[in-house]
């Protein structure tokens, strides 16, 4: 987006401010006849990538446009990587939470139930003291083979934890 400092209705700094506040991903170049530091400082504050003084020479404009284009593509690539990382982290959290249920509710092996802090850290939950969460289990299993075992383990595990929690009150 190429803007002049002085434009009818709204100046370039104001457009940059509004774009920044609205979190609009845009590369902004301001063209100005004012070499005043205050304009440049305001432009930087609102994320303006380039500030050119008039009169502008063609090679200077081309160079700045190339820089803006490269910056835009780097930012776009960074966003793709960031989105992939975010998705990986969400998938990993889901996997860890599923692992919790498999290890403590579905496992044949008896294990001590970890503390809430340990569950938070190991399985990516965020339980808070004094707060309650509702847990809804949707189990996919063969009712002919597994329903009694799963039901008993679920009841035993949560009964012990509830008793421990109430005894602390």
Give a description of the structure.
The chain is mainly alpha-helical. It is 57% helix and 7% strand. The protein has five helices and three strands, in the order E-H-E-H-E-H-H-H. The chain has helices spanning 12-21, 37-45, 58-106, 116-123, 147-167; strands at 2-4, 29-32, 50-53. A three-stranded parallel sheet has the order 1-2-3, with helices on both faces. Helix 1 links the parallel strand 1 and strand 2. Helix 1 (12-21) runs parallel beside helix 2. The mean pLDDT is 81.
Structure described in brief:
The chain contains 5 helices and 3 strands. The protein has helices at residues 12-21, 37-45, 58-106, 116-123, 147-167, and strands at residues 2-4, 29-32, 50-53.
SSE ordering? EHEHEHHH
Sheet with most strands:
3 strands, parallel
What's the number of extended β-strand segments? 3
Intertermini distance: 61 Å
Unreliable sequence segments? none
Any idea what the radius of gyration is? 29 Å
CA-based shape: elongated
Strand content: 5-15%
If strands are numbered along the chain, what order do they take across the biggest sheet?
A: 1-2-3
- Helicity, in percent? 55-70%
Compute the number of helices: 5
